[in-house]
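Please fill in the sequence for the structure shown.

STRUCTURE ENCODING:
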């Protein structure tokens, strides 16, 4: 078993054919702040980190790379050696991007580019004053080819823990901290983003966020409804590129020492342990119908 341990998803780095519109979405709609622009690439922060979102020009929409922060108990050189011993190639990049002076670049079995780092600059730009202002980037869901190998990679190599699944071999939820899921991996014959999710404060913030979206002509695609896996209250909408964005609150809190989730009144079994679910909504909302085109 690996000693390499990721503890958070720090950033998502997007390609965009219309990067100005994406930057406008992130600043005007979500309330992120521009930290830095360099070589046509925009680095956006939601308060403390140098960046949590990167927008760069490209020939397609979607994700260029995901940035995960390591716990720092191993140096990047030691992490690289351990990955190598497990047959995984990586490249140590120095001064490759602002805010993260050193990181390892590698690929997961699905083909995603993964960047692992121990230190990110924290210039503390502060929260914006308008827009939705999420608490943070919470999780990524992606369609993955090589589904089984990809789940094993995040579990066995990067230290993630299984928390739930939908169906027997369709969709696995993994965490690297106390949140129910930081990754949601969906079996597919292609690898691409399913959705990116931002945490809100509470139900009132959820309603206010939908009002802001409506004023900006962004339709809510589904929700609010409560999921089964994670029990988060969620709504979904499209960003300016058509990527699906989830806004959520009240996600289950995982207690790793007990392998249960903190009890909540809406749990139908107590204590609630990681398990298999059949549907996606605990309220019976037809998520599968409403979001069939995602
Ligand atoms: Fe989600």
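FILLED IN BY: designer on duty
SEQUENCE:
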């Amino acid at each position: 078993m690996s000693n390499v341990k990721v503890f958070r998803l720090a950033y998502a780095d997007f390609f965009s054919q219309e990067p100005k519109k994406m930057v406008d979405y992130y600043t005007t709609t979500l309330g992120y702040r521009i930290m830095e622009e360099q070589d046509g690439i925009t680095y956006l922060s939601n308060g403390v980190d140098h960046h949590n979102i990167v927008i760069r020009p490209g020939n397609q929409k979607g994700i260029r790379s995901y940035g995960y922060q390591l716990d720092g108990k191993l140096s990047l050189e030691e992490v690289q050696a351990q990955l190598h011993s497990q047959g995984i190639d990586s490249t140590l990049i120095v001064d490759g991007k602002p805010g993260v002076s050193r990181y390892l670049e590698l690929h997961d079995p699905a083909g995603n580019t993964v960047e692992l780092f121990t230190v990110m600059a924290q210039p503390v730009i502060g929260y914006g004053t308008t827009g939705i202002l999420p608490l943070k980037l919470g999780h990524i869901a992606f369609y993955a080819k090589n589904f089984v190998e990809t789940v094993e990679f995040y579990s066995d190599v990067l230290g993630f823990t299984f928390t739930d699944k939908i169906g027997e071999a369709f969709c696995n939820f993994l965490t690297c901290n106390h949140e129910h899921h930081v990754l949601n991996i969906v079996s597919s014959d292609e690898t691409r983003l399913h959705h990116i999710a931002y945490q809100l404060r509470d139900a009132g913030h959820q309603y206010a966020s939908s009002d802001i979206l409506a004023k900006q002509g962004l339709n809510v695609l589904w929700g609010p409804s409560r999921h089964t896996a994670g029990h988060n209250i969620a709504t979904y909408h499209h960003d300016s590129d058509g990527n699906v964005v989830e806004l959520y609150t009240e996600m289950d809190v995982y207690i790793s020492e007990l392998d249960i989730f903190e009890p909540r009144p809406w749990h139908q079994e107590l204590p609630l342990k990681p398990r298999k679910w059949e549907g996606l909504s605990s309220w019976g909302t037809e998520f599968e119908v409403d979001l069939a085109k995602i």
